Automatic annotation (TrEMBL):
UniProt keyword annotations, A-Z: Disulfide bond, Signal
Pfam families: Folate_rec
InterPro entries per record: Folate_rcpt, Folate_rcpt-like
MF (Gene Ontology): signaling receptor activity
Entry superkingdom: Eukaryota
Family that this chain belongs to: Belongs to the folate receptor family.
Protein name, as recorded: FOLR3 protein
Organism: Eurystomus gularis
Coiled coil: none
Ranges where the Folate receptor-like domain occurs: 12-140
Gene Ontology cellular component list: external side of plasma membrane
Length: 141
């Protein structure tokens, strides 16, 4: 029974703004998102937008507090590709009550090596926000 439950959490797409309803092949995925081309919850267009500094995906700019170094930005792009494209995030899907998504992911594990590399590549970058998930003032765009 545990294996059935575990397997039912894989190969699904979460209910969020840019996700497909079911995972499937997407041969034209772009850049860092290409890892999911054989079975993706994202479209080719979403994968392109994940790489833009000013993307329509979240109306967010990676350079919101000054230019983010490319070596740092690639970690955030990879994180976006994982979020948008992976069909295997079921164990970490949580309910969300927002106008633009009904589900989100929380507490996804990160390999120690990836965490250390992310820190190494971003330790000299700046952000002007304590928490990127809430409290933004969008009135000026």
């Amino acid at each position: 029974a545990a294996a059935v439950t575990r397997n039912s959490l894989l190969n699904i797409c979460m209910d969020a703004k840019h996700h497909k309803t079911e995972p499937g092949p997407e041969g034209q995925l772009y850049g860092q998102c290409v890892l999911w081309k054989d079975n993706a919850c994202c479209t080719a267009n979403t994968s392109v937008e994940a790489h833009q500094d000013q993307s329509y995906l979240y109306n967010f700019n990676w350079d919101h507090c000054g230019a983010m170094p490319e070596k740092c930005k690639r970690h955030f792009i990879q994180d976006t590709c994982l979020y948008e494209c992976s069909p295997n995030l079921g164990p970490w899907i949580d309910q969300a009550d927002t106008s633009w998504r009904k589900e989100r992911i929380r507490h996804v594990p990160l390999c120690r090596e990836d965490c250390e590399q992310w820190w190494e590549d971003c330790q000299d970058a700046f952000t002007c926000k304590v928490n990127w998930h809430k409290g933004w003032n969008w009135t000026t765009g």
